[in-house]
Amino acid sequence: MTLLEKTPGAVRSKTGFWPNNRSTIIGVAILAVIVIIVPFTATSSMMNIAVFSMIFALPAIGLSLLMGLAGQVSLGQAAFFAIGAYTHAILLQKFEVPGILAAVCGVLAAMLAALLVGLPMLRLRGHYLALATLGLGFIVMIAVREWEFTGRTTGIYGFGRPEVFGIPIDNNGLFFWFVAPFVIVGLVLALNLTRSRAGRALSAVNDSELAAESLGVNTYALRVKVFTLSAGFAGLGGVFYAYQVQIVSPQVAEFHVSVELLLMVVIGGLGSVWGAIAGAFIVELLSEGLRDLIPAIIPGATGEVQLIGYGIVLILVILLLPGGLYQAVRTVWAAIRRRSASRRVAAAAKVPDGTADAGTGDAPTRAFGGVPGEPAGPPAVADDEPIPSVPAISTPLAAGETILEVRGLTKRYGGVVAVDDVSFTVPAGRIMGLIGPNGAGKTTCFNMITGAIPPTSGTVSFLGEEVQGRKPHVGAVRGLTRTFQNLQVFTSTDVVGNVYMGRYRKGRAGIIRGMLGLQGREQYRNEEIAHDILDAMRLGDVAGLAAGDLPFGRQRMMEVCRALASEPALLLLDEPMAGLSGRERDMLANLLRALRDAGLTIVLVEHDVAQVLSLADSVAVLDDGVLIAHGDPESVRNDPAVIVAYLGTDAEEAKHELEELEEHA
Amino acid sequence: MTDFLQLTAAGLSQGSVYALLAVGLIATYTVRHVVNIAQGDYAMLAGLGSISLVSAGVPLPVAILIALVTVTLASVLIERLVIARVKDLTTLVSIILTLGVSTLLQAIMLLVWGAEARRLPAFPGEDLLIGGVSIRSQELWMLGTLVVVGGGILLFYEKTRWGKALRASAEQPVAARIVGISPAAASVIAFAIAGFAGAAAGVVSSPIYLSIWSGGLLLGLKGFVAAVLGGLVSFRAAIVGALLLGMLESYVAGYVASGWKDAVAFFILIIVLIIRPAGLVLRPNAVRV
Question: What is the pTM of this model?
Answer without folding.
Answer: 0.85
